[in-house]
Amino acid sequence: MAGHTKSNIAAAPGDPELASEASGRESYDRHLLLDHVVRPEDASQRERFEAVARTLRDFLTQRWLLTQQTHDRENPKRVYYLSMEFLIGRTLINNIINLGVEPYVRKELRTDPRQDWSEVVETEPDAGLGNGGLGRLAACFIESLATLQIPAMGYGLRYEYGIFRQAIENGYQIEQPDHWLAQPDPWEVCQPRQTVQVPVACRFELHDGVLRAVPGYATHLLGVPYDRPVVGYGGQTINTLRLWGASSPDHFDFGEFSSGDFVGAIVDRILAETVTRVLYPDDSTRAGQALRFVQEYFLVCCSLADIVARFRRTNDDWGLLSEKVAIQLNDTHPAMAVGELMRLLLDEAKLGWDEAWELTVETLAYTNHTLLPEALEKWPVRFFELVCPRLLEIVYEINRRFVADVQQRYPDDHPRASRMSVIEDSGERQIRMANLAIVGSHSTNGVAQIHSDLLRTRVVADFAQMFPERFNNKTNGVTPRRWLLAANRDWAGLITESIGDAWITDLSELRQLLPLADDQTFRSRFRQTKQSAKERFADWLRTTTGQVVDPETIFDSQIKRIHEYKRQLLNILHVIVLYNRLRSDPSISIPPRTFFFAGKAAPAYRLAKLIIKLINNVGRVIDEDPVSRGRIKVVFVPNYNVSLAERLIPATDVSEQISTAGYEASGTGNMKFMMNGALTIGTRDGATIEMAEEAGEENFFLFGLNAEQVANSRQWYSPHWHYENEPETRDALDLIFNDHFSRDEPGIFTPIRESLLDHGDFFMHLADLSSYAEAQQQLGELYADPDAWTRKAIINVAGSGKFSSDRTIAEYAAEIWNAVPCPID
């Protein structure tokens, strides 16, 4: 499986030179024997997976090193992508496909009667490094950077536990530890020689079981780097994802331990390692907020130190920094990079303020991912005072100069300076991290055209007026290697058979499918691939969860983080409307439909968790009622992750993209569904607008208020009007509030009633429910005509070419980073 010559590694995907069967088998057996001290015939499934993964890593290591050596030698401009999340999923299958060695891996595993290819893939856990779209986008981006041969590194944190493993008990979400690193990860390589010291201006102590910060005791954390290969398609470039693990200086007090103070002797190490223990600590408490703050500071300090060290290895002139380095901040989480880069340039490089500031602004760029004001991070000044007072000094000076500039430019607009200030003085003094990111970078981009427009005109309009040249749009994309080539083999194979394989690296080639939408044979074969995917998913679901679904029904999926603005509640309200129709007249014609929900709610987000409970309760009642059983079914699939999405997306007929218009930044699940042949029912929000433009609105099921209508109706919108004047809306709500779905727990859904009727229905579920139900009715009618449905599905796939992360990254490289490919010889 692994050839170890330069010519072997440089071969194209599928080239026989890529793999030496003898050496691959020898490497596999050697890893089983030497890594685990076990005979191959006695090895466990996990041990066999690790042997395959390490054999593959042996194979790619030479190319990985050659990539780094070439970048050092050529000294191109390098891109550094800072993100608190990288939702990379499983690595084995992605690396096998991108290296082009799958036929050889399959062949070799077939020679082992105890080895099953599918079981090998299933043994690998999803890496617990992300939660939702932000992290999955980062994973797609770093894969596209490698595929496009752009010199780049990703920087994140090596969380020992993911956000949490979701279980469902009595309909409720239960959070369990997601210890994805319980066993060694064969892909990561620890680099202790490149450990970074992170200064901290306080120490943390345990008092009566409570963690407290003690100021005035300067100490430091250690950032230990763990590197993972990022394989570009074709295996030409292998970039690096560097994840930082937190530790403490090794000063174990043997005397303290010997005297009986066992906890005191090891508390520093335990506290230090807590920094990278868990992704997204519960921020409903002050302690959780403080830990999150330290995580962001730790990421920025480690990454900036490493970036500057790499720059200095090949550049003596600090003035070349922005010509050789591009740093992209993925949302506000790494926004402290503005202050930290200034600190490095001022305190270590000894540059003057003006030169340091110019270099900082030219080097940094910021991606905004939200239109929700509450999601624009603010950190208490007190956190900065305790942890990093030097950064606070620098931020104060940045703000003093910036506010003075605002006042000079707008002398008659006194409130403007207060709105734009990096420091918020009302109530507890806080640092506005989005303001800091915009002020301290040369580019601020949104991630869909409507998002970028709303960002400029509503969310940060003052900044867009002052710095119009800094604002731009970069519509998101997803990697077709993961989300079509790997996830949907049958459909990918049919595409390649029909138009060739150039689409794998140029998704715009899918336009060639348009004429085939009118080809009866091609439509029939498309339906076969979809049906096969549905049957595979139904088998997997039954095996893993015990839930039984009928693959002959419409598969309607809403899979994303549970949040009010994403409106899973609107979806389940419509399900109740359908259920009521059947109860009123069992003879009516409703195409049999299975509604899939999947996603996690933040542990402290009580209403979101209650929506999960409602979904599960509605599903149970519908299953128990003879009038609805077999005609509509609701399934909540627990513990949503990348691997689950790779199974369900190819099997889905209907993609639910139903956020309140003006609140979804982009969405990327919508793109994955589109290229896999699902039809979209959605609002005019995020990237769905651009998707409909590419495929034609007549091939989408769009409904509801648009963003302008949502904004303009705030003053007069009354959910009570819809309750009083729309019988189906009233009947659906009454069924919930009269405990039809909660007979054993009366009153548990009262907070949902309060949100919808008493508190104004901020996300306008009831305003869109009738329009949504009408669109669903049209959808069901179309599905009854298989040829018409399939034609629209193929047109959607043909129109999905714009939504490749390769296109997005090419735009970032040309328009923000000024970075070009650096081919590996």
What does this structure look like?
The structure is a single chain. Strands 1, 2, 5, 6, 7, 8, 9, 10, 14 and 15 form a ten-stranded mixed sheet that branches. The chain has 34 helices and 21 strands. Mean pLDDT is 92; it is low at 1-19. 50% of the residues are buried. It is 49% helix and 14% strand. It is globular, with a radius of gyration of 27 Å. Helix 27 links the parallel strand 20 (679-682) and strand 21. The protein starts with 5 loop residues before the first helix and ends in an 8-residue tail after the last helix. Helix 12 (337-348) packs antiparallel against helix 13 (353-363) and helix 15 (389-409) packs antiparallel against helix 16 (414-420). With 825 residues, it is of the alpha/beta class. Among the domains are: 1-73 and 101-121, no CATH class; 480-810, Glycogen Phosphorylase B (Rossmann fold, 3-Layer(aba) Sandwich).
Primary descriptors:
49% helix, 21 strands, disordered N terminus, 14% strand, ten-stranded mixed β-sheet, six-stranded parallel β-sheet, 825 residues, Rossmann fold, alpha/beta, single chain
What's the topology here?
Elements: H1 6-9, H2 21-36, H3 45-74, E1 78-82, H4 92-99, H5 102-110, H6 117-123, H7 133-147, E2 152-157, E3 165-169, E4 172-176, E5 189-190, E6 196-207, E7 210-231, E8 238-247, H8 254-258, H9 262-274, H10 286-314, H11 321-324, E9 325-330, H12 337-348, H13 353-363, E10 364-367, E11 378-380, H14 381-387, H15 389-409, H16 414-420, E12 423-424, E13 430-432, H17 433-439, E14 444-446, H18 449-459, H19 461-466, E15 471-473, H20 480-486, H21 489-499, H22 520-545, E16 554-559, H23 568-584, E17 593-598, H24 606-624, E18 632-636, H25 642-651, E19 654-657, H26 669-675, E20 679-682, H27 688-695, E21 701-702, H28 707-712, H29 719-725, H30 727-737, H31 750-758, H32 765-783, H33 786-798, H34 805-817
Parallel strand pairs: 1-2, 1-9, 2-8, 9-10, 10-14, 14-15, 16-17, 16-19, 17-18, 19-20, 20-21
Antiparallel strand pairs: 3-4, 5-7, 6-7, 7-8, 11-13, 12-13
Helix pairs in contact: 2-3, 3-6, 4-20, 7-34, 10-12, 12-13, 12-15, 14-15, 15-16, 22-25, 22-33, 23-24, 23-30, 23-32, 29-30
